[in-house]
């Protein structure tokens, strides 16, 4: 498997600074992420008709807004992601989220202390002294820890009693959790290797923000400890870093990242690797058989570079703020929902044909519901560079060329092309080519594909 932490040229902090990165009050000086963000539990989304008076979120409208508007504005991204990725239930009120926030904070702290007591030697990252930035990161991280302890001591008696009760509940919940020492030590060893290689040129890791590297480390270890079936795999540091940057909060990052991994953890296992490659190859075969034949003329290994794109959500192929926006669009799952509507429409067409007067029946292609929109994004990139890819005679030149695309792609152009390929694929699968027309009793404005096309247009 290709090393996911290499091949990304270092850029200056100024080049990486984008509007999507939240700014701290009082200036742009970056500090270590907060432990929790209780104020956001009662904050409001200003997206039209997305949140009601009591703070409940219409999940369908949220996902629709993200897709049709190409993401949310940077100032609301952190709150929107907490709903989008499932940390906050969309049906919860602001009052309910305030209570939930305390519970999530305490549970995370109990989980973290449990692995720290199990492996006290792993509480500190082992440094060789040659990385001055990491040494500074430890200092900034320790300063935050001291401030957090002081804040805990300043709590009122009523709050202390309530938090103590929540902690007792959490201890009971995780009491029977056990760790495999060797497996956890191995996971920590890899995490300690990967975390320092996280892109430090991001504004988020500048100045005191270096301490966020240690925050990232603790989140990843806690996740690996309590998800042994997944543990840790290369690339998770880059993925989790994206959540930490946007949410700017340790506890919220852990729970949002955990929710995301519930759906996509398979991608970090060997069977997930092969599945992604096979799906992309199958889609490209549908869209461009000659290019597909060229890329598989020796073996399927020639598609491994696509796995990195898909695994990290094209994190390096687009400019940083654009990559965040694309990750947001892909995570809203809006097109996957539409593809289900296409499948239902195809079924209705077949039923109508079955009971038609002429008695004719033709086989329609089945929609492959595993062809998610991210696969069409990948295919759009390949097709845009089709001629250059056809000139690559072997894997070495193929990897050199695709690595050279990092940070150079235009997101709006790729989105339009991916949308076009997705729409045409769905149309081919759902449309009866034998009749080649709608039913006589359906006007253009009732035509399913007319509505489908209107949903695809990004503002």
Walk me through this protein's architecture.
- The chain is 58% helix and 0% strand.
- The chain has 459 residues and is mainly alpha-helical.
- It has helices at residues 13-16, 59-68, 74-84, 94-118, 132-153, 157-173, 181-194, 212-226, 236-247, 250-264, 270-287, 289-295, 304-311, 320-331, 334-354, 373-384, 386-390, 395-403, 411-430, 448-456.
- It has 20 helices and no strands.
- The longest helix is centred in the N-terminal third of the chain and has 25 residues, at 94-118.
How would you describe this structure in keywords?
single chain; 459 residues; mainly alpha; 20 helices; disordered C terminus
Number of strands: 0
Annotation field: number of helices: 20
Beta fraction:
under 5%
- Biggest sheet features: none
SSE arrangement, N to C: HHHHHHHHHHHHHHHHHHHH
Q: What's the Cα radius of gyration?
A: 24 Å
Low-pLDDT residue spans? 6-27, 357-365, 432-459
User: What class, by secondary structure content?
Assistant: mainly alpha
Helical proportion, percent range: 55-70%
Shape: globular
Q: Span from first to last CA?
A: 38 Å
Query: Mean pLDDT score, rounded?
Result: 82
């Amino acid at each position: 498997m290709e090393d996911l932490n290499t091949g990304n040229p270092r850029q200056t902090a100024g080049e990486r600074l984008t509007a999507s990165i939240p700014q701290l009050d009082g200036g742009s000086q970056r500090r270590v992420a907060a432990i929790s963000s209780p104020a956001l539990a009662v904050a409001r989304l200003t997206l039209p008709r997305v949140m009601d008076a009591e703070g409940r979120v219409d999940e369908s409208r949220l996902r629709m807004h993200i897709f049709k508007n190409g993401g949310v504005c940077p100032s609301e991204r952190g709150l929107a992601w907490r709903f989008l990725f499932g940390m906050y239930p969309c049906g919860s009120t602001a009052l309910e989220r305030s209570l939930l926030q305390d519970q999530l904070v305490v549970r995370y702290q109990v989980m973290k202390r449990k692995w720290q007591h199990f492996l006290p030697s792993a509480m500190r990252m082992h440094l060789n002294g040659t990385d001055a930035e990491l040494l500074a990161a430890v200092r900034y991280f320790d300063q935050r820890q001291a401030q957090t302890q002081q804040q805990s001591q300043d709590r009122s008696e009523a709050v202390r009693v309530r938090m103590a009760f929540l902690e007792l509940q959490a201890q009971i919940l995780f009491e029977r959790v056990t760790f495999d020492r060797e497996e956890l030590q191995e996971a920590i060893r890899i995490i300690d290797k990967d975390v320092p290689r996280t892109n430090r040129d991001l504004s988020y890791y500048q100045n005191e923000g270096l301490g966020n590297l240690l925050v990232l480390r603790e989140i990843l270890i806690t996740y690996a400890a309590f998800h042994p079936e997944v543990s840790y795999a290369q690339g998770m540091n880059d993925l989790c870093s994206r959540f930490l940057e946007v949410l700017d909060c340790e506890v919220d990052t852990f729970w949002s990242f955990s929710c995301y991994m519930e759906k996509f953890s398979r991608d970090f296992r060997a069977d997930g690797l092969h599945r992604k490659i096979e799906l992309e190859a199958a889609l490209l075969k549908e869209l461009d058989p000659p290019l597909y034949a060229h890329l598989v003329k020796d073996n399927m290994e020639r598609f491994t570079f696509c796995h990195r794109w898909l695994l990290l959500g094209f994190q390096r192929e687009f400019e940083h703020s654009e990559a965040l926006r694309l990750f947001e669009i892909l995570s809203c799952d809006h097109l996957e929902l539409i593809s289900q509507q296409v499948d239902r429409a195809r079924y209705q067409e077949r039923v109508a044909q079955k009971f038609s007067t002429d008695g004719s029946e033709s086989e329609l292609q089945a929609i492959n519901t595993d062809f998610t929109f991210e696969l069409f994004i990948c295919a759009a990139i390949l097709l845009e560079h089709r001629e250059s890819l056809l000139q690559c005679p072997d894997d070495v030149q193929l990897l050199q060329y695709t690595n050279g695309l990092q940070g150079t792609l235009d997101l709006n152009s790729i989105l339009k092309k991916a949308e076009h390929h997705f729409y045409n694929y769905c149309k081919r699968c759902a449309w009866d080519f034998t009749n080649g027309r709608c039913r006589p009793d359906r006007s253009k404005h009732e035509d399913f594909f007319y509505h489908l096309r209107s949903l695809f247009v990004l503002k």
